[in-house]
Amino acid sequence: MLNSKAFANAITIVSLTVYVVCRVLAQIAPGFLLKVSRSWFHTFDWGINGQTQMDLGTFIFGAVVLGLLSWVTTYATIELYNKFAKK
Questions:
Q1: How far apart (Å, rounded) are the C-alpha atoms in residues 22 and 79?
Q2: How far apart are CA 49 and CA 25, in angstroms?
Q3: Which of 39, 75, 76, 78 sits a CA distance of 20 to 30 A from 10?
């Protein structure tokens, strides 16, 4: 049996760490980050050429949404896992 809250907290911390690292990469190597994102989304053209700057409010909003999404989906997944594991 897994502890849902502990697991969700861990995933959220890891997700937010990746988010911050991604933001730093966007600041120091936007071309590289754009190439990576294009490869992940099968050469989807974002139409921005890596030139758009993110303001602090958008960064914080993204972090909050990512944190909430990570925590809720992980918690729900572990709760379902625990429920199915009992059967």
A1: 30
A2: 15
A3: 39
Question: How far are the Cα atoms of 32, 36, 57, 62, 71 from residue 44, in angstroms, in the given order?
Answer: 15, 11, 26, 21, 28
How far apart are alpha carbons 87 and 69 in whole angstroms?
28
Which pLDDT tens digit goes with each residue over 23-79? 998 889 888 887 887 787 776 666 666 566 778 898 999 999 999 999 999 999 999
pLDDT at 41: 74
Token look-up 């379902």 returns: 80
- Predicted local distance difference test score (pLDDT) of residue 30: 83
Residues in the chain: 87
Q: Is the dihedral of CA 59, 65, 68, 71 positive or negative?
A: negative
